[in-house]
Amino acid sequence: MTLNIPIALTWLRILLIPVFVGVFYLPDTLLSPIAKNWVGMAVFALAAITDWADGYLARKLGEVSAFGAFLDPVADKLMVAAALIVLVWLGRAESYLAMIIIGREIAISALREWMAQLGKSRSVAVALIGKVKTVAQMVAIIALLLWVPVLPGISTALVGRLALWVAAILTLWSMFHYLRLAAPHLQEPSRTMPAKGKPLIDPPARETL
């Protein structure tokens, strides 16, 4: 494993998870509830920026690697799962919506890993619906972390709750979309071992949350 800028940014995103969670455990005497909202949102937003930056830099610098393609979606899933769990704990998100989103991420990650072993990873490459789901998910989490009104006449909490419902619906829609694409290949045996004894497995496709 070679440590380069894109992989370093991915590791940074993982290291930000305990920082993000820890913010909401600080005593109110040290950080007020409203300040916790803003700091937590800022840490999550920074993690989201690194998600975009590591992929962009990997392509720009020609440093795309199998390990980076594996670690990037893992970091994304962990950060989103941590944010949703915190929001459920704070009473700002419904637990069943969080379970739908987290469960889908685990299921689709496993599906992509299986398809990579079949040499069909391109069959379940990220589609437009997955990207739209990601946008709705980011809007929902950021709004629910802020919680308090930011713009006059607009309820930040309501925007977050609506966006989370949209994200959950798109989550299920995109899951069925990927399952439908993968269905014709699920009965195929995994690709055989080549002559040198190394499994012929496609590198995992880079995901978008």
Q: How would the blueprint of this fold be written?
A:
Blueprint: H1 5-23, H2 33-60, H3 66-89, H4 95-117, H5 128-146, H6 156-182
Helix pairs in contact: 1-2, 1-3, 2-3, 2-5, 3-4, 4-6, 5-6
Question: CATH first level: which class?
Answer: Mainly Alpha
CATH architectural group: Up-down Bundle
The CATH homologous superfamily is named CDP-alcohol phosphotransferase transmembrane (TM) domain
Element pattern in H and E: HHHHHH
| Overall tally of domains | 1
Q: In terms of per-residue confidence, which ranges show pLDDT below 50 for 5 or more consecutive residues?
A: 192-196
- Distance between the amino and carboxyl termini: 23 Å
Q: What fraction, in percent, of the residue positions are helical?
A: 55-70%
Total E-strand runs: 0
Main β-sheet, in a few words?
Answer: none
Shape: globular
Radius of gyration from CA coordinates? 19 Å
CATH structural fold name: Four Helix Bundle (Hemerythrin (Met), subunit A)
Strand content: under 5%
Number of helices: 6
Features:
single chain, 209 residues, mainly alpha
Structure description:
The protein is mostly helical and 209 residues long. The protein has a single domain, classed as CDP-alcohol phosphotransferase transmembrane (TM) domain (Four Helix Bundle (Hemerythrin (Met), subunit A), Up-down Bundle). 67% of the residues lie in helices and 0% in strands. It is built from six helices and no strands. Helix 1 packs parallel to helix 3 and helix 3 packs antiparallel against helix 4. The longest helix has 28 residues. The protein starts with a helix and ends in a 27-residue tail after the last helix. About 2% of the residues have low confidence.
